[in-house]
Amino acid sequence: MNLPRPRRLTILAALLAGAGIAAGAADLPNIGDSAENYLSTTEEQTLGKVFMRNVRQALQVVNDPEVESYIQSLGYRLVASSGTQGRQFTYFVVNDPAINAFAGFGGYIGVNTGLILVTQSEAELAAVIGHETAHVAQRHLARAIEQSARMSAPMTAAIIAAILLGSQTSQGGQIGEAALAATIAGNAQQQINFTRTNEWEADRIGMRFLAGAGFDPHAMPDFFERLQKSSYENLQYSFLYTHPVTTERIADSRNRAEQLPRARDAEANGNYSLIRAKVRVLQDNNPQKSAEYFENTLATAPASEKDALAYGYALSLLALGQDKEALAQLRPLIARDPERIAYQILLAQIQLAGGQTTAALATYERNLGLYPYNLPLTTRYVGALLQADQAKKASATINAYFRQRPPEAELYALQARAAGMLGRSTEMHLALAEHHYQLGETRAAIEQLRIAQRSAPEDDGHLRARIDARMDELQTAWKAERKVSGEEEKKP
What we know:
Layout (H helix, E strand, L loop, with lengths): L4 H11 L25 H18 L6 H16 L9 E5 L6 E4 L3 E5 H6 L3 H16 L2 H9 L4 H15 L5 H21 L2 H17 L6 H12 L8 H4 L4 H12 L12 H14 L2 H14 L2 H17 L3 H14 L4 H13 L3 H14 L4 H13 L3 H14 L4 H13 L3 H14 L3 H14 L5 H25 L7
Parallel strand pairs: 1-3
Antiparallel strand pairs: 2-3
Helix pairs in contact: 2-8, 2-24, 3-5, 5-9, 5-10, 7-8, 9-12, 10-12, 13-15, 14-15, 15-16, 15-17, 16-17, 17-18, 18-19, 19-20, 19-21, 20-21, 21-22, 22-23, 23-24
């Protein structure tokens, strides 16, 4: 199958909308430049936008600020030790009990909640993320795309089957397209991971990332071996399907781990256990079930696990509307660790639930004084300000954050809400445009800019020029996305 390059990219964009690519660093194994002839780094980044748009349509991406911030921090800790600085990586969590993780175009790496819950240490979770980061750093998909020019007939048949499966969804439309993307994403990931060389290389490089970040590299073979032993009893271990683990591969990774330094600190900041507790509450989506789990487990848990379990119990009780009982679980935790951000955020949420708005805002402000521009604190604080009808202060807080930190989709959504409350229609649509663009929804962003153009005051030439300039930028981005992804040539 030897297609012209534009047509080949169109097909592969659809087929590989769920696997990841990014350029490797100079100190990593040299894979050569030939893959650039089939998919350039710029095209990869553009496809990343398309990839995340499809992911958000097909999967339930976790939008909890604490979970998002944690998984990004853990990913960045690995990247800092990887020699891939300068490349963009985005780590996110999908609310799915299946035990799996995946890499995507443009350096996007997804982790299922089920995987987080099955790990027994932060090092094990970091091992899987390091493995996926290595797939990205080594441009394994770009290399797979290069090989696709000589795609076999059976592979072509498998591709057609995947397309037919995706196109026959009962609801059609965007849902059908999203389902197709998810189906093909799995097929694409499987093709990468069933390549023995790629998998072993990702293990080897991933363990280097792991050790460089201060984690025990033995966590990788230990985790794989535990999954392999228990997989016969648990059909949700889809990680083993997309990342086949053999006894030989485990032995090889264990031998390599012996050559690397062990961890200095098993868990750097203590947040892993708390995030696991929160993820359980989110995944259950049933606070009564979660509350019963934490209450029962607390009774027999070792002392080292009790704080995280009490935190999860407090989260569940708050979700049940039992704010006084939640506070009773939280107070001892704060007494032992008063500056823990997760505890302070939960305290403020309990205060809000109990009608203590002034106290909640004071809690957020006190902690932002200790941790300026912390994203979870800022996001929760702005939400509380809006709940308290303090839209002007909320808007000022967001603007101050954006002057110091990279833009965030959720803060743009809150900025739009604040502008709407203040009656600033044009600002609201500008913020919504940036919110959609951050999520990879370029077409929706352009629609919001069109509304902003219509609502902007005629006598404000500076504002209108700013909107027009941003429109030109997003139109260019949308054109690039259509070209590389094979979407229909139509203006939004």
